[in-house]
Specification:
By secondary structure, the protein is of the alpha/beta class. The chain is built from eleven helices and eleven strands. The chain has helices spanning about 30-35, 75-85, 145-155, 180-185, 195-240, 245-255, 260-265, 275, 290-295, 300-310, 310-315; strands spanning about 5-10, 20, 25-30, 35-40, 50-60, 60-70, 90-95, 100-105, 110, 115-125, 130-135. The strands form two sheets. Strands 1, 3, 4, 5, 6, 7, 10 and 11 form an eight-stranded mixed β-sheet that branches. A hairpin with a 5-residue loop joins strand 8 and strand 9. Helix 5 (about 195-240) runs antiparallel to helix 6 (about 245-255). The longest helix has about 45 residues, at about 195-240.
């Protein structure tokens, strides 16, 4: 088996012949990985297939792959031989291209941020070491003039900016701020764009911190209100002001309007129990049963002891 040859298919550190860079992390590889076809000079024809690419990978700024030629196709022996003898060294990727994903970075470089890999070809004389061919969304190969026209249209819409010390800050041609805004930023003038940017970032950070503190306070107050609401309603159930089936309804009311729930429940009379109406039997001690219900709730041994030791109090229970 002949030794495969490694090609650099693309280098994102080098500007291509159309005037932009290709962002490798934005290339969708699923289509290519499922059919890693190797074409001859981007000729989309079955007769132009030289083989397939193997071990496609990204190393630093480069996309690399190894050749897997179709040696059984005798019509390609000439091209394959020229490659193996070192007379053809160029390779080029074919990407599905959407001009909407062309964008400038802070240094004014034009990048193709997203694309889809369609094929990679052996090329005799690519315009540079990372030359590419671009396809439309419909799969049609775009001409060089088509691509350059699209790039120029992006150039026309490029925002005016001047590079300053902090490359993350874009300097506008003119910056007018009201006196109120300057006071809020703690500045006297807007001449120093970097200082204005830093002041805005500080203001945004302060706002974020205050908002977080405010949100935490709201949560704490809500939790406290929920606890008070539950306690209020449970007490109303215990005193017989409301029945247990209304508990959730009143808790919801108390959580949303504690004062209203408190006044409503406060105006309700507590339920008078039968035990509350029955007077304590004469001669009964503090821990003695006050009525038949309490007596029957005692263990049998205590019932017998109470009857034997306190016959008067026992008889009073049945009066």
């Amino acid at each position: 088996m002949r030794k495969p040859i490694t090609f650099v298919l693309s280098d994102e550190s080098i500007k291509n012949s159309y005037g932009f860079f290709v962002r490798h992390k934005g290339i969708k590889m699923a289509r290519f990985n499922s059919n890693s076809v190797m074409l001859e000079d981007h000729n989309n024809s079955t007769k132009a297939v030289l083989g397939r690419w193997a071990n496609t990978r990204f190393e630093s700024a480069q996309m690399k792959a190894e050749t897997d030629f179709d040696y059984d196709d005798k019509t390609k022996e000439v091209t394959i031989g020229k490659v193996e003898r070192g007379f053809i060294k160029g390779a080029s990727i074919g990407l599905i291209f959407n001009p909407a994903y062309l964008a400038y970075d802070d240094e004014g470089n034009l990048w193709l941020e997203e694309s889809e890999m369609m094929e990679a070809s052996i090329c005799p004389v690519p315009s540079n070491g990372n030359s590419i061919s671009l396809y439309s969304q419909e799969g049609e190969l775009l001409t060089e003039s088509d691509v350059k026209q699209l790039c120029l249209s992006v150039e026309k819409n490029k925002p005016a900016e001047i590079k300053i010390k902090d490359k993350n800050v874009k300097k506008m041609e003119k910056l007018n701020l009201s006196a109120t805004t300057l006071v809020a930023l703690g500045m006297q003038s807007a001449d120093d764009v970097v200082a204005v940017s830093a002041a805005i970032e500080r203001l945004a950070l302060n706002y974020s911190n205050e908002k977080t503190a405010h949100d935490n306070t709201k949560v704490a107050l809500k939790n406290m209100t929920d606890i008070q609401a539950k306690k209020l309603v449970e007490e109303a159930v215990l005193t017989g002001k409301i029945t247990a089936d209304l508990k959730d309804t009143y808790i919801e009311l108390a959580s949303s309007n504690f004062d209203l729930a408190s006044k409503t429940l406060g105006a309700m009379p507590a339920k008078t129990t039968l035990s509350g109406e029955i007077k304590k039997p004469e001669g009964a001690a503090g821990d003695d049963p006050k009525n038949i219900d309490e007596f029957q709730a005692l263990p049998l041994a205590k019932q017998l002891a109470f009857k034997a030791e306190k016959p008067t109090a026992y008889a009073a229970l049945f009066v």
